[in-house]
Amino acid sequence: MSTEYKELLSSTIARPELRTKRIKEVVRRNLQYAMLSHRWEGKEPLLQDIWGKSVYDSELDSINGMTKLRSFCKTARNTGHNWAWSDTCCIDKNINVELQESVNSMFVWYHHSALTVVYLSDVPPSSKSGALAKSAWNTRGWTVQEFIAPKVILFYQNNWTLYLDDRTP
Questions:
Q1: Do residues 110 and 129 both lie within one domain?
Q2: Helices (H) and strands (E) in the chain, counts
Q3: Rounded-to-integer distance, Cα 136 and Cα 5, Å
Q4: Where are the beta strands (DSSP E) in 44-128?
Q5: Dihedral of CA 72/169/156/110: which sign?
Q6: 47 and 27 within one domain
Q7: Per the database record, which ranges form the Heterokaryon incompatibility domain (predicted)?
Q8: Which of 56-65, 96-105, 151-160 has the lowest mean pLDDT?
Q9: Closest C-alpha to 86, from 139, 30, 63
Q10: Do 94 and 48 fall into the same domain?
Q11: What pLDDT, in 10s, does the model give residues 43-53?
């Protein structure tokens, strides 16, 4: 029952010709998402680990990979996105059909993301130019599609600062 919702409803009733355009605008602004591109390192948080919880709950502190997931969520929020998507915990890998559909849809998901955050876990703070090319992130099978599909990519070093302090999309 937000003010924005009431205004949207009112404007689409009063001006039907604007209905689709206005709804698309509001949905695009509020439902844009950031995606995480990263290397899996050991155990990562799974859907079952975080289901029904906030990633910031202290009860999740003992789960390996939570620091990376929390840092990604914070980065997504700080860049103006209300939604964050990470393959480790947004796909139910116990359901084969969902897993296969997700793998087949990855390019499209990255393409439709508002932002792709590339986490370079092996690139230390204040790295020099060229560290990105040497990162193990480039050795994964998914790197090409995760690099060419998104419209906007930002690269982050292992302390979650921007690689080469480069903020250009």
A1: yes
A2: 8, 4
A3: 45
A4: 83-85, 115-119
A5: positive
A6: no
A7: 33-124
A8: 96-105
A9: 63
A10: yes
A11: 889 888 988 89
For residues 24 and 37, membership in a common domain is answered with no
Give which of 6, 93, 97 is closest to 44, Cα–Cα. Answer: 93
For residue 64, how far is the Cα from the chain centroid?
19
Confidence of residue 30 (pLDDT cuts 50, 70, 90): confident
Domain assignment of residue 112, yes or no: yes
pLDDT digits (tens, 9 = 90+) for 118-142: 999 999 998 889 999 999 999 887 7
- pLDDT (0 to 100) of residue 141: 78
Residue type, 65: G
Copy the structure tokens of residue 41.
Answer: 């390192």
List the domain range (segments joined by +) for residue 39.
Answer: 33-156
Domain membership flag for residue 54: yes
User: Taking 70 as the threshold, does the pLDDT of residue 18 lie above it?
Assistant: no
Query: Among candidates 62, 63, 73, 78, which has minimal Cα distance to 38?
Result: 73
Q: Would residue 167 count as lying in a domain? A: no
59, 53 Cβ separation under 8 angstroms? yes
